[in-house]
């Protein structure tokens, strides 16, 4: 297939610039060190023995993310955030805060396009540039990737593998972007909750952030330990290596 000018192809110069910046960057160790310490504490949760659930949030960081982080902190709950590179460029401080508070961070590509519609080179650029922007902002190089809209196939997974990324999907999605109602979102999360589940939400949806205090309270009442995706995977004996799709 001949080359065509795609939406990502026009950013080739940006890709090169960010790659060089990432290579030359002297990384800040504070957020990564804090996250490592918190992850070590979370690792004591054995999801093979207790009832665990992973809450995941896509499309951030956004204006509502700090409120969500405060809610999670008060509940002593950990979550996993899949960040969009363009939004990290706009809100790097929030990306650093997310990592520093011990949550897991993954790559949700640079500009949130449907990857199956792109050429191989464009898919690779979307994944790698998203990863590099997160690393530049936070000092942490993510190894987890989530395809926008869940649009993936063997080709996308192969390219993620080549970038050294595991692919993280979900066991249930709230469709909170469509519901946009805190009570409906709460009911949906509680319906989807199950042991070793991975639930998809969005920290860019205000109603989701509004619903979280009640959701966390009810999930804990039901005996769930709210953990990151890596902790959940370890409990199931799953290694999140490059090219692995989970769950």
From TrEMBL:
UniProt KW keywords: Hydrolase, Metal-binding, Signal
**NodB homology domain ranges (all copies):** 51-227
GO MF, one term, reads: metal ion binding
Record carries keyword Transmembrane helix:
no
Q: Which InterPro entries match?
A: Glyco_hydro/deAcase_b/a-brl, NODB_dom, Polysacc_deacetylase_ArnD
Signal peptide positions on this chain:
1-35
Entries under Pfam families matching the protein = Polysacc_deac_1 (PF01522)
Q: Output this protein's name.
A: Peptidoglycan/xylan/chitin deacetylase, PgdA/CDA1 family
| GO CC annotations on file | membrane
The answer, when asked if Repeat is one of the entry's keywords, is no
Species of origin reads Nonomuraea wenchangensis
Tree of life domain: Bacteria
Q: Which GO terms describe its biological process?
A: carbohydrate metabolic process
């Amino acid at each position: 297939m001949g080359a065509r000018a795609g939406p990502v192809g026009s950013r080739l110069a940006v890709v090169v610039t960010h790659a060089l910046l990432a290579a030359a960057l002297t990384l800040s160790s504070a957020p990564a060190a804090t996250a490592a310490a918190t992850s070590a504490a979370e690792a004591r949760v054995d999801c093979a023995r207790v009832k665990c659930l992973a809450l995941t949030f896509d499309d951030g960081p956004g204006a509502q993310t700090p409120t969500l982080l405060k809610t999670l902190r008060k509940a002593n709950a950990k979550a996993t955030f899949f960040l969009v590179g363009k939004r990290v460029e706009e809100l790097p401080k929030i990306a650093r805060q997310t990592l520093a508070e011990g949550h897991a961070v993954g790559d949700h590509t640079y500009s949130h396009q449907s990857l199956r519609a792109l050429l191989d080179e464009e898919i690779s650029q979307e994944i790698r540039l998203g990863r590099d922007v997160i690393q530049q902002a936070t000092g942490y190089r993510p190894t987890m990737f989530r395809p926008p809209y869940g649009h993936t196939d063997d080709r996308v997974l192969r390219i993620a593998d080549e970038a050294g990324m595991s692919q993280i999907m979900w066991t249930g999605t709230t469709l909170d972007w469509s519901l946009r109602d805190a009570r409906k979102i709460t009911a949906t999360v509680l319906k989807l909750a199950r042991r070793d589940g991975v639930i998809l939400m969005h920290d860019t949806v205000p109603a989701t952030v509004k619903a979280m205090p009640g959701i966390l309270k009810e999930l804990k009442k039901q005996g769930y330990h709210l953990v990151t995706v890596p902790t959940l995977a370890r409990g199931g004996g799953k290694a999140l290596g490059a090219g692995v799709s989970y769950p």
